[in-house]
Amino acid sequence: MYNGKTPVLIVVGGATASGKTALAIEYAKYFNTEIISFDSRQVYKELNIGVAKPTDEQLNLVKHHFINHCSVFDEFNAGIFETKALAILNKLYKKHKVVIAVGGTGLYIKTLCNGLDKLPLADYELRKKLKNELELYGVEHIYQILQKADPLGYKQIDSKNPHRIIRAIELVKNTGKSLSEIKTSVKNKRNFKILNVTIDIAREKLYENINQRTEIMIAQGLEQECRNLYHLKNLKALQTVGYTEIFEYFDGKYNLSQAIEKIKQHTRNYAKRQITWFKNQQDNISHIDFDVEKLKNHITAD
Length: 302
Known about the structure:
This protein has two domains: 228 residues, P-loop containing nucleotide triphosphate hydrolases (Rossmann fold), CATH 3.40.50; 52 residues. The longest helix is centred in the last third of the chain and has 24 residues. It has twelve helices and six strands. By secondary structure, the chain is of the alpha/beta class.
């Protein structure tokens, strides 16, 4: 066990379907601690199959925070997550020297570790104009606007997430900077040490995992879950891979087989962006080289 004076946050990151949950639980059991989830969709009670939440068995093995935390009707974002997660960490560090964080939402863990970027206020006039264009021409059109405005940084934004795209366009146009340049100049000091562990598996294996998991979701009843949530499809929380494709199937854009293939494709695209994001983070450690014993030694020696 770790008996150092400075508490440690072990951040387990990586692409979707890479095995983050299982590894985080292994670490948490070893260090006899709890898990902070930084997944921006698993936080919602109403979303289950489509967001690949930990199973009941996994949740019973180790206490998880921010799983089924709020409703899709509630306001929840990176800033709220930072405030709540820091408060929970302060309580956990009174009884644990090590806490595990796991997830795939880069903005959430960046906020928890470094604080929020100091960004300009919303440009409501531009936002209204972009929302009108979104209604008229669709999400691909506004993504092309972002690509033209920021040819270097646009790939950082999910091409299927209109809210993120519109906000990115606002930032680029109002700052005159690329998204890559808009970074926190000063990191907020934390009272815990941060150790990043990024899962890195072969791309072919990752894609195989994604395809298999999609088929499992369909077998578990993703179509019915989406049918139950269809009336909420315009909520931000529901504009998520795995849901939007089935909603489009309901709307007649695809047949079911095509929708399933779209889910696989869009999930692979999302995984590529996650891989890029986590690789760009400093001081990452491959889990292949760090089982729990080696991880403990690294914490102690650092």
